Amino acid sequence: MASRTHVLADLPLRCLVSAPDTRAPLPLLVFLHGYDEAAPTPPGEALRRHGPLAPTSAARSDFIVLAPQLHEAGDRWRFHAADVVQAIERVESRWRVDADRRYLTGFSFGANGVFDLALEMPPMWAALWPVDPTRLPENDPGVPVWLSSGEISRLIEQPLRAKLGLQVKPEGLRVIVDYGLNHVETAARAYADEAAYRWLLRQRRETPRPSSRRTPLAVD
Fold first, then answer.
1. Is residue 169 predicted with pLDDT exceeding 60?
2. What is the number of domains present in the chain?
3. Helix axis angle, 109-120 relative to 81-94, nearest 10°?
4. Which domain holds residue 128?
5. Between 116 and which of 5, 52, 78, 132 could a Cys-Cys bridge form, CB atoms 3.0 to 4.6 Å apart?
């Protein structure tokens, strides 16, 4: 099943979307980029460097992939939760998305954004896939997590494991995988790993448990 790539240029954040040619509802995989992929680099170039749209990705046609692009580089995804929601709403108005299988992934600063946005909008996500985050999340996001660890997150691996209950058990709901690689190599290896995508596809959204998280945005 072939996929087509589309640029959404009329939103607060420019986006790249890869959508398979099918009428069946598909899971949505949202990718948050790292420092070097922000504007002014064209999204067709920047958003294919790392992540599920990279040439070496194993995502294939199992997902609709949405990749928004920040206007400026930095650890800033927490300030753009509403913009990401708007992009998701646009995608879901144009393509058929399985709303119980929305997944959020990101690399480096984008991995930090995975935790930040999950805390802002916990009802939206069925699972999270941060790749080599640079800092700890403020709280437990309360959903399944597959964490791909590299040279940066390795420095905070023990508190990450403790805070999120991560284990080296690919069949579990809180998984940590460390390929023993540097920061960029970890991204390439993680997004080429079919096991991570298979794990995502097994996760479905559930009603979130009450917690001390911030009040979520309206997403449905």
1. yes
2. 1
3. 80
4. 3-201
5. 78
